[in-house]
Fold Endoribonuclease L-PSP family protein.
Amino acid sequence: MAGKIDARLNELGITLPTANKAVANYVPYVITGNLIHVSGQITMLNGELKYIGRLGENLGVEDGMAAARLCGLNLITQVKEALGGDLDRVTRVVKLGGFVNGTPEFTDQPQVINGASDLMVEVFGDVGRHARAAVGVASLPLGISVEIDGIFEFE
């Protein structure tokens, strides 16, 4: 039987992507105590890179928000893996760290990372409200536009 978060995902018409594998010397997540630290999730959808480029150059804010939402979906997928499939165990989305590949003139990083922040509240309700950072960077791995890591509390 599906839990309330799985039911909420279904209600929102959201299908979680396949969990991304680590591509270097790290693991997708680490559990310590009652926290899951999820490694940076990129704009990969079921093995295919999406949203390649730089904000303010070949991508706009709407593209960036969609990229951040995809990163958020990948975060939720990793948390689901970490919790043996039971997202109802999440008691708090603690923090998101967002990195936006943009031109030096691009300053809408907070709006871009809202793509992931809004998703967390849509899926988890008040439990999804979190602290965060939205940082502009000169480049990201594989030319992607957004990368986001996260900390989640669970019971």
Summary: Residues 96 and 120 are 10 Å apart (CA to CA). Residues 61-82 form the longest helix (22 residues).
